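Changelog-adjacent note: as of this version, every example in the card shows the full chain rather than a window. The one below runs 392 residues end to end.
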Amino acid sequence: MSDAAEKGTAAGKLKVAVLGAGHGGLALAGDLGRMGFEVTLFSFFPSELAPVRDRGGVELSGEIEGFGRVARVVESLAGAVDDADLLLVVAPAVTHQTYASLLAGSLRDGQTVVLNPGRTGGALEFDRSLVRFGCAAEIRLAEAQTFIFAAESRGAAAVEVLKEKDVLRVAALPGDDTASVVELLRGLYPQIEAAESVLETSVNNVGGVVHPAAMLLNTAAIERSAAGEDVRFYKHQVNRHVASLVMEKVDAEKVAIGRALGLRDVWTILEWYDRSYGVRAGSLYEALQNHPYYAGFHSPTHLLGYNHIPDEVPNSLVPLASLGASLGVPTPALRSIIDLACVMTDVDWWSAGRTVASLGLGGMTAEEMRDFAAHDSHRSRWLRGTLARTAN
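Full-length structure tokens:
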């Protein structure tokens, strides 16, 4: 997406903290800095921050070109959020509990926290963790369905933005806060629009459809990449059989779960590519092979690379399978990929992953889940209970 007149209209009005300095965090910090936002960048890993500190920002190439100044580069999470209006968590979903636990004592009233993305159940998990660690601040919490960019690192403090997505759906928890969060975020990126709830952003998360199966079912491409060959993830690692016989079945189960939840707008993966990238195709294989913005993505050099297994199996596939079981939706393809991941990594991802119970939705009907996501949160319930006990 080219720069539109309304992009970045909140520059100079908002102080933004980008939490995470991987491919996505650097791209986002750089683009916001390029637009004139006062950006603070945090990472748990000093090695990610040192090049940005040395250069004073991030060099962007590809669809977005230019240098983005980063005002502050900090190794203290509390220091990163102290003066921020908007906190953008740009990190694998496996870090969400960690971020929530460490932020619980530092957040202040009026701040907005957005998970970019939440994967499946991110805001729900983050919310429960804030309660667990006693966060009493009145904040707004939201999650994005996907990340605003397709981006890949091109060296120290340098990122190529392969594509800025055409549409980005966002929802708050509770959904009653969504309109105000979207209004805020549209001051950064005008293509951001409101999702029905965090249930929609969670189910319309497509990472679990395209990433784990490709990693597990074509390890030959990973071995070639490890040997030094120029192997591209979507072009060389996804073959026609994996796309049609596995990925499309996983997607169909995901869609069935969304419909069982009673969501109004459930996207198939082909609809997602059309809306997000403007890529139209008759099959998933054709979409991935002809996707002009995916051509630059390289294959990883080992099975756990890119977090496609350690992040998306427990935080996309396991919660989807758990939702399916709760709603009576069969998920044989989803469950097969999870089982295969357990075998190939010697990790019990079923135990490590998010579930309906761990997200606080256990025992709820689909209608009750929708109502909770729209009007309630674990924080609000906890605070109501705390106030009631104090009054007594």
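Structural remarks: Residues 1-5 have pLDDT under 50 and may be disordered.
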